[in-house]
Amino acid sequence: MTPLPGDSSDTSSVKIQIGETEHLVDTNKFPYFKAFLNFQEKSGQNTTSIPKHGDIPFFDVINYGVSHGFRHFFRRMPVRLSDYHTLCETLEFLAIDVLAGQKLGDIMKDLRKCKSDYDYCDGNELKGDKSLARDAAFRLLYIFLLGEFESEVRDRVMAYNTALFVVSHTGTFKPKTRKMVREAFEERFLVTEKQKNNLNQWPISTLSGDDDTTTEEDSYHFYNSDSDYEYWYSD
User: What is the pTM of this model?
Assistant: First the structure.
């Protein structure tokens, strides 16, 4: 479909009225709208005016997050798990491939990339990728809410490990992210008393702050080595 006058020079960006609001939508990132516009064009509907679609819950948030990174959902969404259910179901409806084939183990690897490393060859510090980790935190929430697990019992331990990683890394994941990930985990899985006590080591005292703010280092309350951290995770 040919972009309307005033649209971005990117030919995949098209103005669409969703509900009462016009949005500039990158159809390459929204398979649903690519199919929607193709159907309108093939059915001979008027293509000289802005296409109209019914209201879509949280679409302003979705459009920004899909374009700029899933981490932005935590910044812009209300702090209610019920709203995240609606958000994730809407992402599924729009055919957004949030997980991109990732499973819990893959998400954990991306979460851990928030940690800085040290190159012993040249003596330089390798900064962690906090943006990647924050995007992974949303994928984690998404898989807790909508994902399918081969074994709820067996996968519960790994799910707990990933949730605890987010909750305990307060320098990377801000209160909104930590609160929503924990609530999604506790809603999906049976949480033992020991797991709950471990999660309670990092209370969420405030919901102020920017989930996309870069901090210099993470706030580790204890355990400096990976091996110690894995031991803490064991259940």
Answer: 0.81
